[in-house]
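Quick start: read one record
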Amino acid sequence: MTDTAPRPAVMSDESPTTDVRRIGPAFRTSHPLASGPVVQPAPTVDGFVETFLGELNYGQGTLLSQSTVNDQYLALARTVRRYLMADWLETGTRRRQTQQKTVGYLSAEYLLGRQLGNNLLATNLQDIAQVAMERCGIDIATLRAQEVEPGLGNGGLGRLAACFVDSLATMDVPCIGYGIRYEYGIFRQTFEADRQVEVPDSWLSLGNPWEFPHPERQVLVSFGGSTETTTDADGRERCTWTPDWQVIGMPYHYMVPGHRNGVVNTLRLWSARATQAFDLQIFNSGDYAQAVRAQTTAENISKVLYPEDSTPQGKELRLQQQYFFVACSLHDFIDNTLPADFDLRRLHQRIIFQLNDTHPVIAIPELMRILVDRKGFAWDEAWEITQKCFAYTCHTLLPEALEVWSAELLGRLLPRHLEIIYRINEEFLEEVREAHPGDEMLVRRMSIIAEHPERAVRMAYLATVAASKVNGVAELHSQLLRDKVLPDFSRLWPEKFTNVTNGVTPRRFVRLANRRLSDLLTETIGDGWVTDLDRLRELEPYADDAGFREQFRAVKQANKERLTTLLRVRDGLELPPEAMLDVMVKRLHEYKRQTLKLLHIVSLYDDVVSGRVPAEQVTPRTFVFGAKAAPGYHLAKEIIFLINAVADVVNADPAVAGRLSVAFPANYNVTLAEKLIPAADLSEQISLAGKEASGTGNMKFALNGALTIGTDDGANVEIRRLVGDEHFFLFGMTEPEVEELTARGYTPSAVYESDPQLRSTIDLLASGHFTGGDRQAVAPVVDNLLHQDSFMVLADFRAYLDAQARVDAAYADPDAWSRSAILNVARSGYFSSDRSMRDYLERIWHA
């Protein structure tokens, strides 16, 4: 059961209702207390200073002379948001008036990054703000550094969602992003004795000036209880859900500005609150913990991103999170956003809900429940509406990443939803039987309900059955999705499957993150590339211009020096700025094969310390890792430990000083990525072929002038095709070759025995050389490589080293390397999230 507080007088798609118009360089607002329009002049330094000081005095309650850095940051942020507010209000008004179809983007993650720089860029206020702060005696860089990045995502999935909502605003497409306002979000990673330690990320502790709470739009969300079916006066069955407990969903609105186009969309994140947070009678009896237990239970739902789910309690909390945010979101749009008299038969004309992976798939039975139980629709009519209102993006090829919820847990937590899922499945399987009579094995394979090892709901199957479209996120991924992950469904509904290759926003990941390169691009080809990344093609002729190559190298070197300074201050790490920067940053997972990179480093080190290769013949390289391991992923955490242990020894050994160094800065996030990616020379994209869905880091590196060493996996395939084979270091097995080796039977120990260099590398690791002689400390990783090696690290080791030798040869010619790097930039315009959004609009949303 989902309900709401009394409907407020003001309702909106995007923002509070105020009549706002932008006229020329000024903003004009029709104020309810004014007889005419109130005009706010165009931004000036003087006006900015006045607004900033006003926010400092009346917002923070302090004087400039007595203010802290945090006071100044909050005042600056609120000053900048004032310049967004009129556009936000205008956008909401226009959306309501035009009743355009809206994209409801349902995502458990939004890895936004810091907002101040992005909003200054969107409003074109960077220069004005900098001069204004200088007049106040403030270094704006200090205030930028004060902002704490929202930890609302884990990796590529969350960063992709943030890129998509950025692009939709820049393209003036109506969109509401829906998600969870995690109080702590993803954990903050630290290292103790080289091991990952997770600590809470208190990103809200100093205040968040970018959010707007709206308690008048709160939603009541129910859990547990039982259902009862009755027959009404017309002979129709009606189901009533009587829940055991409820929580309140409190929305917080975030502005999502387009790039200097006067459009500001909305991100609406939900925070869980108790219906009765405090029991005074229990408190007065002396049981203080029990008095606030309801509050604790409710707020746990939005406490942490992806709670550890190796326990039954953790699994239940994850399902609570997923239902909580989609129930709030669907109810918000249907009851708080649509006009009160809206005909829900036309719901698909006003909204398309995009399911960003399986996390929000429980929204499908929730919409059916709303339509059938609350709005009185017949089942068939409700199902027809529902099928038009959802589309599903699958982000994985790993079976374990396709969520499956036990029927016992679903039935206990969401009993009505399980009943709806059972009926959806029954009717779907009848459709399968009609299409393939007598093939009961096919029926079992396609059932939404798995029977073994326990009865459970396969959420990817439910999404595929209900969605109007199902898409993968790179050409290879989408093909494997059709052929390997959901083959029976793609044969039944070939027209339902499509591809939309991922993209990244050039505003944050070039214009904001790499100001030097951005300025060089604009000086060379104009600034149109910022919103039309295909225009980077105009850069191609300059790859053959010696003067431009020299400028390009100077940009890369300056970015390296910036990173060196940052890591010295942030982490106490010292990078040699003249070395090749070889970077592997991504979530720590076996299939991404950080262990393959580690074996390469150890093999180079082994060559030198054994005397096989003179140190002066080794190309100077700094290897940089950035990765978090899920708290319950034991082997991934052992890999992190081993990388750090190797770094300790390599960095301290004079035999390789000036030639090899390893850095693993803790807590890799968007803020660090914005400094690291522009500095990189080599991008490591080395997952086992057929395992990575797409990747977006590979796109960011190419756009910033790094060359890629990678397998033919995910979007690497498209990157290589676009930039050219000669500008990409390809290695390793193809996906069919991986399948063939798997079928033949893969024995990693046999590969170890057959390759002397691999054997020497692993033996050095296993000896305890990097762990003070402690062989047991490295045993989990070494034993896994030798006896399991599920992602065929050893099988690709020789090809990887051969490719790295080609990297060394190419890097020895700085001019040729720069030419390849420039062509990577010039030919990567396809990987804009703006293009991704156009593909979604054309192939899926029709908005």
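The first strand starts at residue 2 and ends at 4.
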